[in-house]
Amino acid sequence: MIRVLLVDDQPLIRSGFRALLDIEDDIEVVAEAADGDEGLALAREHLPDIALVDIQMPVADGIETTRRIAADPALAGVHVVILTNYGLDEYVFDALRAGAAGFLVKDILPEDLLHAVRVAARGDALLAPSITRRLIHRYVTQPLTTGAGLDGLTNREREAVALVARGLSNDQIAERMVISPLTAKTHVNRAMAKLHARDRAQLVVLAYESGLVVPRTG
Question: 36, 162, 176, 193: which is deepest, by most CB within 10 A?
Fold first, then answer.
């Protein structure tokens, strides 16, 4: 059972998401919060698998809430998915750096939201297409540092991280690297451990920050 915490200051949004999620056999909404402070307290109380967190809230916004969850060792198993009304929200990169596992727009189709919750619960990175374009654009227009933090990776691990940053799944990475899916998963997991990344979303950020992956401009 995937346990979900809803953190949004709009009761109507929370009610709509709860109604959608609770009818699924494998998903359960365990709590709702109206602001970041309450969300953090409820995360500690219920230890959900997923926290769906609004980006703009009173008291503590989504980025600060994500940062607090990521910094709490007791909440290491909580995957934060940020929700926004705007597909090109300027806070995308900050949210990912804070530890968010994904970033979704609130007008997402119901079936896509359910898919998103299940993907994030597996520990996979989750970015809406418009969000991915925003992230890529940032790295097209701003300079990159080089080699930061990747020196401890093997060549195969670096290759796997680069493919994660391109949006490939473990099965696709395995096909590209001509290895088994289990070996691909092992490379990714070892890279995450060495880089102290909470999930694949942070691997994406690190890959672009370090210059391991340079976005295509054409």
Answer: 36
